[in-house]
Design a protein that fits this description.
single chain; about 350 residues; alpha+beta; Calcium-transporting ATPase, cytoplasmic domain N; 2 domains; ATPase_P-typ_P_site; ATPase_P-typ_cyto_dom_N
């Protein structure tokens, strides 16, 4: 399992696109200058702020004690460990420090994204993220009964749901094949830099009352966000020692294939010149089911399994199938990580 095992699980937004305007936050821990957002239309920024602030289960609270339980001289903000996840935390920090240009950590009243939530007077309904569908959404009730659905999740999955995009001027335009290809190139560019790529979109929902079930409406592509999770410094050497001892190290992750390959290269897990194979969980499942269909397919499957060291967009079932097939191959398997299911 990758996140928090091979990486530090210290995620921060470092680059991306709002509409078609690229941004780069070189020092995500600092308060950036307004130049980052100079060319972003206000309407696009407002939609992104609302979507990221409300479409999240993370929550920040004021902490007045240290790790030893003793009171501290200066209170500080801390994420609740029982709410949300590190990806959501990074996106909300991005809202506070970049989109709303408010990075004062000494303000103990509320964070900027919390003020956005408090200002949503007409209510909103959240539909949580699942590993199967790779996205989450929120429907927000606005003035006059207007309902807006905000969606965020795996960039490739969210892009599939869109038929329009936000242009550089902030206008909604049809998502043509050429523009879809351009966005895919942007996604791959960020992923090849070992970023987790998050797509953000929105759509208008018919009706005036908040829905009890998640609506399905055509979406407008709004933003692409690249989140960096630094590799643990000791990982490449640990992987090398395992390989020297005859242990094959394989990585499973929910990230897309390009991001997974980029990170596994940094770790020393994946080497294309060595003949290593990387694939998605869906591709792996298909190979396993085909292999069970005939002995001939099973014979073709084993060499692929031997060289497969990276599984992207994996679900819990994919990890179970991987362990099962390796054990059928006669391998001794150990699984580690906080997301091994």
């Amino acid at each position: 399992d990758k996140t928090g095992t091979l990486t530090q699980n210290l995620m921060s937004v470092v680059q991306g696109y709002i509409g078609l305007q690229r941004f780069n936050v070189r020092d995500p821990g600092d308060v950036p200058t307004p130049i980052v957002l100079r060319n972003v239309p206000a309407a696009s920024r407002d939609l992104l702020v609302e979507g990221l602030s409300l479409n999240s289960s993370s929550e920040k609270v004021v902490c007045r004690t240290g790790r030893d339980g003793e009171s501290v001289a200066r209170p500080y903000w801390q994420w609740r460990v029982d709410k949300g996840n590190k990806t959501d935390n990074a996106l909300l920090d991005f809202v506070d420090r970049v989109l709303l240009q408010d990075g004062d950590p000494t303000d103990m009243t509320s964070r900027p994204h919390q003020r956005v939530r408090a200002g949503s007077r007409h209510g909103f309904a959240i539909f949580p993220f699942t590993s199967e569908r790779k996205f989450m959404s929120v429907v927000v009730a606005g003035p006059g009964g207007v309902l807006t659905q905000h969606v965020k999740g795996g960039s490739d999955r969210v892009l599939e749901m869109c038929d329009r995009y936000v242009s550089a001027s902030g206008a909604e335009e049809p998502l043509t094949d050429s523009m879809r290809t351009k966005i895919v190139v942007q996604i791959r560019s960020l992923a090849n830099d070992a970023n987790r790529t998050i797509g953000v979109a929105y759509g208008r929902v018919d009706g005036e009352a908040l829905p009890a079930s998640e609506p399905t409406v055509p979406l407008v592509w709004l933003a692409l966000v690249g989140i960096q999770d630094p590799l643990r410094p000791e990982v490449p050497d640990a992987v090398r020692k395992c390989q020297q001892a005859g242990v094959t190290v394989r990585m499973c992750t929910g990230d897309n294939l390009d991001t997974a390959v980029a990170i596994s290269r940094q770790c020393g897990i994946y080497n294309r010149l060595r003949g290593d194979v990387a694939m998605t969980g869906k591709e792996f499942r298909s190979l396993v089911y085909d292999a069970y269909g005939s002995s001939a397919n099973m014979e073709k499957f084993w060499p692929i399994l031997d060289r497969m060291v990276v599984m992207a967009r994996s679900q819990p079932l994919d990890k179970q199938l991987l362990v099962l097939m390796l054990m059928m191959r006669g391998e001794v398997v150990a699984v580690t990580g906080d997301g091994v299911n």
